[in-house]
Structures are given as C-alpha cells and as structure tokens.
C-alpha cells in the first residue's frame, strides 16, 4: 500500500475547484506528514501503555532518524526524475552494502549468504530494467541529479537499519514503540525546520486546502508509512538488519508488480523469471532451518552405508589409533582421493567445481563446434563415433591414474561398474543425437532439468534421502531453466532466423524426446555410481575405468555392426582438420569425467548434479558469445544469477555435510573415550572382565562398518 501510494501521490496531478492543475509542491512536505502521523500514533500507544516518552536513550535515535529522513526525501524526490521501477531496482542494491556493513560490525556471514544476496540483487536489477519499457516518457531518466538522489538513497537506506540495530543493542530496555516515537519526533522536527527555512510551509498548507483529495491520499500514505515503521522496528529488534532487508526486498518486488498492474507498466517474460528467481531465493532462505529438522535424512543412511569419503576416513582414523586404514584408500600419500580428504570440504568443493566447470566448458564448446561446423562443406554426423573415442580416451586416462597411484588395473569389484555404465551409454547417445534436432542452448538447458529426477532416483534406490529444502531448490531451478528452454527454442527466433517453423514441429518433438531419455538415464547414472561406492570400496579411477571400458565397448561394437565406423574413419581421412577437434573433445571429456567421478564419491549425486547445472548454464553463456547466438544480454545475466543460485544450493548441502561430519567425529571420539574408560575399569576389577571386556571389541568392530 505504501509503495503504490507513494507513486500515486508523487505522480498524480490534482485539479482544484477553479480548474487549476498542480502536483504536490514539495516532496519534503509528504515526508513531514508521514513522520507527524507516525509520531502522533506512537505517542498515543505510549500513553495507553503508560510508558515514558522522555527516555534518556532517545538521544541515540537521532542517527537513525536523520538517515531515515534523508533516505525518504531522496526516495520521494527521485520520482520526479526516474521511474518507480528504476528507483526500486537501485534500492535493491542496498542488500550488498547492508551485509558488508553488518560484516564490518563483527557479524559473520557465510559465502552462501553473499551468493544469495547477489542473486536477489541481480534478479531485481533484471526485473527493474525489463519493466523500464513501460516508463513514463515525460520524465528525464538520465539526469545527473536523479542519479545522485538514487545513490544517496542507497547510502542512507543502508545505514538506517544498522543505526536502529545499534540503538536497540545500546538500550535493550527500549521497546519498538518508544524507538519509533523518538525517531519520528526527531525526523518531523527536522523536516519542519527545513520547510520553514525554505519558506514552503504556507505553499504546502494552501495546496492541501485547495485539494482535499490530496489530503486524503497523503493521510492514507502516512498511515501506511506509520504502520510500516512499527513493523520495521520490530523486525530489526528481533531479527536483525539482514532479515529486514530480505523482507523489504520481497516487498519491493510485490510493489512493482502491483504498480505495473495499476499504472500499466510493461512486464516482460524475463521480468517474470527474475521475480521467480527472487521469490525462490527468499523462500529457500526462509525455510533453510527446516533442513536441519529431525527427520530421516541422508545422515541416517550413512551410518551403515554411503558416508562421504572424508567422513569414512575420519571414522577409520578414530577407530584405528589415529592412522588412516588402508581399507578405503591404498595410501593417502599416493592416492588423489586420499590427499583431497585431508582438505576442508570447502576446498574439496572448490576443486571439484573448478574441474567440472573448466574441463566441461571446453568440452561443450568442442561439442557444439563439431555439431555445427562444416569441413569443406561436409558436416560430421557420427555422434556414436565421438562417444566411442571419448570413452577410449577416458579409459586410457583412468589407466594412467591407476598406474600413478599404484592401484590394480583389474579387480573383481569392478564388475559393479557395469551398473552405471549401461545408463551412462544410454544417456550419452541421445544427448549427441539431440544436437541435430535442437539448438545448442536449448539442448544444454534441457540437460539442466535433471535436479528433481536425480533426487527421485536416489529415493527409489534408497541410497539417498533428501530434505524438503532440497526439493524446493530443485523445483525453483527446474522452473527457471524450463523458461529459458522455451524462450531459446521457440520465442521470436532469438537464435536463428527462419527456423522457428521447422524446430517447432518435428525436430522439436524428436529433440525433446531424446533429451527426456538423456535426463532419465543420466539421473540414474550418478545414483548408480553412488550405489557402487556404497556397496564396495573402490577408487574413483577404478570406477571411471570400468564405466569407460564397458560403455566404450558398447559404442565400438555398434559402430562395427552398423558399418558407421568405416564411414567415420573415411570422413576423418578426407577431412584431417577435424582430428584436432575430435582430440580436444576426447581430452576434455576424459578430464571432466574424472572430476565428475571424484565429485560423486566425495559429495554424492545431488551436489554433483547442482555443479553440472551451474556448468551447463555457464557453458551456454560462453556459447552465446563465441558462436554469436542472438540472445539478449539480459537473459545471459539472468542465467548467471540462476547459476549463482545453483552454486548457493550446493554450498548449503556441503555445509550440511560439514556439520554431519563434525557430529560423527565427536561421536567417534566419545565412543573411543568410553572404550578406554571401560578398559581401565576392567583392568582394575578382574571380576567384571568376563562380561564387560567384550563390549569394546563389539564397538571397535562396528567402526569400519559405519564407514562403508
């Protein structure tokens, strides 16, 4: 109500009985009315509650009162120079300075907090820029004074909640009503003095007398502002400035939506996506505590199976006198995985994310280049041959890793790798084939729709159970990605002119069916890899070698059976320049596959899928620039914001794993201390040795089983 009333009062032209048309003469007069009503309302409440209105702590209210007054004046005055949507966009940027100031005051924030702040700010920037198409052309949106007002608004509005937070911490006995009365009194007095010095009091009173409707509108606006001030004070006192800023950000988006409906502003489809991104991030942040609620989760399953590699190593270390066992890793000094688990989970996540993003971005660029580039007029149309070459390169790379780490090349346990090898092959074939039916950006984004299927497959296989917040994040990501699939593939021919009718019919259906098959099979692949890790102790290089050998054998066999192998070799003989691109594709595929296998081993299929979704989005943005796809830059910016949301979700899951790891470590340490106490007791009391002495043996034997 306050946001809509603000725009209406400041933009409406009032007509008096004589037919004269005029606007509100001074912005500060509206601010003065707001603070005057707020002061009167809070004063009445103080009298009803029999509280003091002359508390010594009122002097501390001068700082938030002045900063709030200046912010309000800049906010109202800016509407004479910029549109409401642009103003709201700039106000959204205060999220970053609010968190930064909060950090400078000593409050700790995680990287996930900063990532979510950037996502929210980016979404509102996109929303404001997209809705700017319906702006009122009578305003000069590029005036320097308007920009200065917006920057001042950003500065003062960021300082106000921290001044209020300091006020409540300095005087904890000061309630929200007293604080509101103090701040509104100081602000009203300051505004009146400025109006008096400027000689605007008589003109403002005359304007209200000539236009009774304006008095009604300002009264409604002031009442809404008063109630807002009470809610703001209560929120900051009990929840802090960051929570208040998040709530205020959501309110800004709602205000813009209502403003667009009432004042006929234009909202595009991308603006709607930005709104979904904003609301989804805020909702996920709000329900994040539910992720730690006591319900059956992955932690319960990992007691007997499925613990992360780092957790398993810690358990083995604690249960075997402080030295890592060789049951899980051959030797931490020679094993890549054994070395990585010594690092913190944040570093492990960073290395895995870096490997997936770098190697698979090269892979995606090579894949698109081969699928669309013509070699002396001929197109390479042998996707199964590329799969076979990639799998062969991956197997050779895995062999080199096994040799370097001292692992055996063949083991009876590697038979288990046939489980993920089959769906891996069945997923790769439709993925390559779909490139000949869909635009590459649409194909890449459709690969990102597997977040929810991965979670569902984990539940069906009973190797992972996910929390409610996991499904909420997955749903938000799926909705956002689905929009871009539709937009890039069909909307207004953004990618290629004249191809919409073709791809809107047969090719679109065929490509979509192929990608649905890919999503289902690839969701099953990562979960089966996780199942193999939980069923047997196997190194990621062994897992990769088994999968690459089995799926590569399938590919070479089909090539020989269909005769496509001879045609593919003939193409390479006739076009030797294609060899370097096939080699680059195979090399990047091998490195990326190993990064994926290690990620699944360390963090499970959900975190791996989130990292892959982020990588696919970044690959799309790179593809737009390198291959000159006709995609609006704002869409790419929104995609980057979605990628930040995905990375934030992966960081949340890793943070939860860190907490689970710490709990397990503490439990194992407590169990070891209990065993030592019982051993000492048995050594002192020989009569109890016949019964109690067996207990430490049973507990010690349970340790390695928990690490499986």
Automatic annotation (TrEMBL):
Cell compartments where the protein resides: Membrane
Q: Which UniProt keywords apply?
A: Membrane, Transmembrane, Transmembrane helix, Transport
- State the residue spans of region: Disordered: 669-708
Record's bilayer topology term = Multi-pass membrane protein
Give the highest taxon in the source lineage: Eukaryota
Q: Tell me where the transmembrane regions lie.
A: 28-48, 141-160, 181-201, 213-232, 267-287, 345-365, 380-402, 422-440, 471-488, 541-561, 581-600, 606-626, 633-651
Q: List, alphabetically, the Pfam families matched.
A: UAA
Gene Ontology cellular-component annotations:
endoplasmic reticulum membrane; Golgi membrane
**Per UniProt, what is one GO molecular function of this protein?**
3'-phosphoadenosine 5'-phosphosulfate transmembrane transporter activity
Q: What is this protein called?
A: Solute carrier family 35 member B1
């Amino acid at each position: 109500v306050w946001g809509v009333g603000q725009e209406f009062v400041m933009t409406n032209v009032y007509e008096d009985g004589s037919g004269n048309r005029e606007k509100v003469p001074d912005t500060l007069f509206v601010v003065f009315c707001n603070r005057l009503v707020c002061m009167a309302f809070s004063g009445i409440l103080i009298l009803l509650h029999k509280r003091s209105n002359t508390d010594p702590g009122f002097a501390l209210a001068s700082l938030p009162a002045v900063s709030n007054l200046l912010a309000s004046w800049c906010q109202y005055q800016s509407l004479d120079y910029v549109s409401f949507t642009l103003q709201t966009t700039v106000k959204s940027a205060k999220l970053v300075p609010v968190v930064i100031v909060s950090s400078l005051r000593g409050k700790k924030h995680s990287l996930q907090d900063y990532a979510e702040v950037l996502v929210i700010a980016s979404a509102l920037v996109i929303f404001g820029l997209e809705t700017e198409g319906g702006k009122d052309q009578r305003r000069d949106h590029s005036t320097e004074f308007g920009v200065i007002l917006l920057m001042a608004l950003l500065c003062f509005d960021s300082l106000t909640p921290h001044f209020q937070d300091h006020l409540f911490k300095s005087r904890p006995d000061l309630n929200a009503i007293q604080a509101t009365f103090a701040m509104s009194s100081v602000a009203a007095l300051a505004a009146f003095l400025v109006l008096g010095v400027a000689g605007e009091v008589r003109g403002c009173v005359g304007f209200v007398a000539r236009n009774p409707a304006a008095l009604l509108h300002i009264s409604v606006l002031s009442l809404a502002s008063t109630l807002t001030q009470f809610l703001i004070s209560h929120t900051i006192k009990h929840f802090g400035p960051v929570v208040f800023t998040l709530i205020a950000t959501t309110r800004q988006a709602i205000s813009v939506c209502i403003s667009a409906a009432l004042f006929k502003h234009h909202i595009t489809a991308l603006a709607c996506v930005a709104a979904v991104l904003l609301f989804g991030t805020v909702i996920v942040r709000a329900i994040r505590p539910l992720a730690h609620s006591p319900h059956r989760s992955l932690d319960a399953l990992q007691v007997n199976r499925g613990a992360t590699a780092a957790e398993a190593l810690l358990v083995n270390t604690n249960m075997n006198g402080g030295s890592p066992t060789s049951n899980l890793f051959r030797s931490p000094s020679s094993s890549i995985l054994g070395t990585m688990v010594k690092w913190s989970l944040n570093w492990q996540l960073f290395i895995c994310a870096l490997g997936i993003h770098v190697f698979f971005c090269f892979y995606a660029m090579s894949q698109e280049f081969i699928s669309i580039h013509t070699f002396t007029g001929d197109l390479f149309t042998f996707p199964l041959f590329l799969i076979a070459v990639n799998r062969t390169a991956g197997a050779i790379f895995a062999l080199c890793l096994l040799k370097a780490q001292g692992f055996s090349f063949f083991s009876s346990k590697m038979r288990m790798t046939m489980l993920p090898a089959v769906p891996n092959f069945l997923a790769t074939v439709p993925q390559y084939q779909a490139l000949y039916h869909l635009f590459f950006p649409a194909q890449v984004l459709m690969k990102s729709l597997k977040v929810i299927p991965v979670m569902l497959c984990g539940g069906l296989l009973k190797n992972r159970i996910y929390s409610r917040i996991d499904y909420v994040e997955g749903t938000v990501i799926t909705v956002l990605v689905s929009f871009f699939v539709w937009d890039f593939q069909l909307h207004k021919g953004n990618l290629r002119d004249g191809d919409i009718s073709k791809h809107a019919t047969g090719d679109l259906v065929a490509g979509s069916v192929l990608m649905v098959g890919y999503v289902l099979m690839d969701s099953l692949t990562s979960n089966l890899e996780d199942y193999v890790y939980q069923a047997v102790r196997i190194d990621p290089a062994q897992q990769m070698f088994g999968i690459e050998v089995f799926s590569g054998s399938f590919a070479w066999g089909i090539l020989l059976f269909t005769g496509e192998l001879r045609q593919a070799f003939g193409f390479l003989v006739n076009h030797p320049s294609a060899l370097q691109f096939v080699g680059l594709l195979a090399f990047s595929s091998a490195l990326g596959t190993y990064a994926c296998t290690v990620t699944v081993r360390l963090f499970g299929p959900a975190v791996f899928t989130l990292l892959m979704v982020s990588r696919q989005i970044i690959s799309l943005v790179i593809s737009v620039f390198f291959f000159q796809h006709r995609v609006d830059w704002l869409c790419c910016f929104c995609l980057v914001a979605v990628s930040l949301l995905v990375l934030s979700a992966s960081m949340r899951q890793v943070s939860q794993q860190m907490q689970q790891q710490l709990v397990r470590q503490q439990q194992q340490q407590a169990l070891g201390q209990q065993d030592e106490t019982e051993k000492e007791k048995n050594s002192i009391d020989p009569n109890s040795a016949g019964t109690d002495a067996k207990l430490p043996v049973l507990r010690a034997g349970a340790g390695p089983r928990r690490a499986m």
